[in-house]
Design goal:
Blueprint: E1 3-6, E2 9-19, H1 21-30, E3 32-33, H2 48-56, H3 61-67, E4 73-76, H4 83-87, H5 90-98, E5 114-120, E6 126-129, H6 135-142, H7 146-152, H8 154-159, H9 161-176, E7 179-180, H10 181-186, E8 194-199, E9 202-203, E10 210-212, H11 215-221
Antiparallel strand pairs: 1-2, 2-5, 3-9, 4-8, 5-10, 6-7, 6-8
Length: 230
Amino acid sequence: MESINRPGGVGLVEMFHLANKGIGELIQKEGIIKPLSPPFWRAKYNEGSFRGMLEQAGVNWGVVEGVMKSSGYILGFLEPVPVAWIQSGLMEYLLRHLQAKSASVKENVSLPIYSFKMNVEPGRVVVRDHYYTSPEYFLGEFNLNVWKLFVTNSTAVWKSDTLRLMFLKGLAAYFNSSMSMSLYLSRAERYKAPELWYPGEFKLNSWEGIKKLTTSGLEVLQGKNWTSSV
């Protein structure tokens, strides 16, 4: 993570956003990254019966919703190669999601994948620790990859009392980890798999970097080639 000074802002922080072919090319055409991610996922876990279940699991909705105020966010990382995301098993599922493939399908992720470097004001960004919903977390806690079960068949997880409680424990910790990036940077403690949430649209500037990942670059994100550069 690097704090930098750039035209139009002082003390900006680098944030890296990944996009698939269609969205990546649209971003370059329009010069804008759009906020496509709702704050509590597309299932709207802050509403209906989910809200009550998560509150019972320990979610402090007053604090979390006080931080997550926007209706749409851009997601990203602190580094171009988020090692913790790779090692915890999260990146595998993210890459499959970007290519709109089921996480249960063992196919190679196809190129191109685009990486956009955004220079952002820490005060606008929210940080969460996605480690709490990673394969590594659930395997360590329950000796079971509940995350894989959830992304392949979420209905089965919600219908099983045992699996639901396991998943809710991780999801509650994940939501409760939400805090402003300014606060996060002021603390000595660091998250295991930080995930950045930028509210609203982001206009690309001349100093922002865009990379179209090569095969070796994609292999780095897949954890296959640690010495290569994306």
